[in-house]
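debug: dumping io for the single-chain case to check the tokenizer round-trip. Nothing else runs in this session.
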Amino acid sequence: MSNNKPLILITNDDGVDSKGIACLIEAVKDLGNIVVMAPQGPQSGMSSSITSMVPLRMKLLSKKDNLLIYSCNGTPVDCIKLAVGEVLDRKPDLILSGINHGTNSSICIHYSGTMGAAIEGCIMGIPSLGFSLCNQSDDADFGAAMQYVRLIAKKVLIEGLPKGICLNINVPNTSMIKGIKICSQAEGRWTSEFMKSQDALQQDVYWLTGRFAHKNPENSNSDESALNNGFVSVVPCKIDLTDYQAMETFQAWENETITNL
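debug: decoded output
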């Protein structure tokens, strides 16, 4: 691969054979040298988890002029760590994760393997973007999403991102996208999260399901609002989780001594 072109590292959490990652590759394949390191199977909901109890393995699946595709038996974050630490000969100029089959808006960012990979790239100081389409179908139409993947990737390659910031980008499930909205994370949580049934031995089992409860639907600046109105939502996310205002609230604790307890 030529060192004169940007180096783009790609992963996802739906697996190396998913339609979403194929569409992401297609959208950016002429923007630089592409290295894909993706899970060998589905890894949805893995967040920032890593593998420590078993060894990681990778396999080269395809090699072309400017495109290398590897699979890995680990999580999305494992894929980023393994690619940057053991495969690439230089630091990537950009990390792209996705395109996820299903939304990662609002609180979903905390569960998302797609965004776990983007956050890991951000920790490494690499401009990192997570892309998701609000359609869980295996054969979802990624056509409109691909246009915005390319647009935003090109912009970040040129302009970069602020230190410690990655982007959570969600695309509405429509071909009539109105544009881009810079948003805050919607306030909400998942409720009624399990469906109870029984296995062949009549033992209770619980399947993860759930309903998203939006706590502040009136907030027109949220990602949920943008998506519901046909816009691509872009949420800048910080890896520093410190609440600096709250530090003042707890400052008095520093004056406490063990005798006061």
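debug: round-trip ok. The two ends are 63 Å apart (CA to CA).
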